[in-house]
Design brief:
Length: 236
């Protein structure tokens, strides 16, 4: 069964009142939606902390200006954009009064939609849009481990159990899909380039970077066409 249909049936009716009364600081959901990758990391109970926490350690040039790039990018505005004239028009045509209060829009325009309120820490703001933890998973454990480290604690390598760091198209197509009223064909390679935020502290060779940047979705028509044209030129 499509996980979204469960979400709608389960959360649609229940969540709405909570949402409209408490959009700012409040956890938006009472229905538990399994967060991809979380169970497999064995970190059940790991909570969402919000982008401000990440900013403490992931801004400044020597750390790749990751937070600065996110702030200036499309995802930081994902909630605000629901107040635009364009959003209101789309919503009106669908019989939705206020897109910023409708599950039908919030699902893809905020982080941790439908997640149990116990898994959301105070200070987390849905109005901050599609935040770091949308793609990296809840960050409480990572924050705790790295905070201890920064205070002189033991230094350990970051593991996939601690925080997700995968270039995987499925991370994006949860939202960038045909259910989006403004859907445009999704070329993973191209869109990933638009939000790229490598951390210079992670040492990589040019070859390794090139390989990462060339990753695309297997069914991307645009990349398939590019390859075909390269082939015709006899470049290979
Ligand atoms: C107390 C400091 C601190 C905070 C807060 C923090 N991080 Fe980190 N993070 C680090 C450090 C240190 C590294 C390792 C950097 C390196 O040397 O490559 C790291 C690495 C990462 C990585 C790369 C993991 C890998 O496999 O290499 C990701 C992704 C990440 N952080 C995301 C986040 C997100 C999302 C948040 C907010 C929820 C966050 N961080 C909050 C310190 C922090
Ligand atoms: C399935 C996920 C999903 C749902 C549901 C969704 N959106 Fe979006 N929305 C997106 C994505 C992804 C984008 C980025 C544009 C793109 O590439 O599709 C976007 C972009 C937008 C934009 C910016 C215009 C643009 O073309 O970039 C507006 C306005 C918008 N959405 C309004 C809405 C409204 C109103 C609703 C509810 C009726 C809604 N969306 C529901 C995923 C979704
Ligand atoms: C739309 C999804 C998305 C959002 C939002 C996002 N990231 Fe990432 N991030 C990724 C992906 C995918 C990677 C994997 C690295 C790659 O291959 O480019 C990554 C990589 C990273 C890395 C490791 C970089 C490296 O060199 O390996 C850090 C650190 C990081 N992100 C932190 C953050 C922080 C902090 C935020 C919020 C301010 C954030 N990310 C927001 C998808 C996202
Ligand atoms: C939780 C839903 C969600 C996820 C997951 C998500 N996005 Fe988005 N994305 C959006 C929304 C909503 C917008 C539109 C925001 C706006 O117009 O301000 C958007 C806009 C964008 C844009 C700018 C507009 C465009 O279509 O070119 C890019 C680039 C983008 N996303 C890349 C990615 C990539 C790459 C990933 C995966 C690593 C990803 N997104 C994952 C919801 C999401």
């Amino acid at each position: 069964m499509n996980p979204f249909s469960a979400l709608f049936v389960g959360a649609g009716l229940l969540v709405l009142p909570v949402l409209s009364s408490n959009t700012e600081t409040g956890p938006q959901g009472i229905h538990v939606r399994p967060v991809d990758g979380m169970d497999s990391r064995g970190l059940d109970g790991n909570r969402y902390v919000g982008q401000k926490v990440c900013k403490n350690c992931h801004s400044k040039p020597e750390k790749g200006e990751v937070h600065e790039k996110w702030s200036a990018g499309p995802h930081a505005k994902a909630f605000d954009v629901l107040a635009s004239e364009a959003a209101k028009k789309i919503a009106k045509d669908m019989g939705i009064e206020d897109p910023q209060k409708s599950d039908q829009c919030l699902e893809c325009h905020v982080t941790a939609f439908g997640v149990d309120k116990d898994l959301i820490k105070r200070g987390f703001k849905p109005s901050d849009g599609v935040q770091c933890e949308t793609c990296h998973g809840p960050g409480e454990e990572h924050f705790k481990i790295r905070f201890k480290e920064s205070q002189g604690g033991e230094s350990t390598p970051v593991s996939a159990e601690e925080i997700l760091n995968e270039r995987d198209v499925a991370t994006c197509t949860k939202c960038h899909n045909e259910r989006s009223p403004t859907y445009k064909e999704f070329c993973f390679k191209e869109r990933m380039a638009a939000i790229e935020h490598f951390d210079p502290r992670k040492e990589r060779t040019e070859e390794e970077l090139k390989k990462l940047r060339e990753t695309c979705s297997p069914d991307c028509k645009k990349c398939a066409k590019e390859k075909e044209e390269e082939g015709k030129k006899g470049g290979d």
